Amino acid sequence: MTTEADNTALVRRFIDEVFVARREDAVEQLLHEDFVGHTWGPEPVGREFLHGAIERVNAGLSDVSMTIEDTVAAGDRVAVRLTSRARQTGELMGMPATGRRYEIGEMHLFRIAHGRITEHWHVADLAAMYRQLGVTPPAPPSGPAAGSGSGA
Question: Please, which residues have CB within 8 angstroms of residue 25's CB and are 6 or more apart in sequence?
Answer without folding.
Answer: none
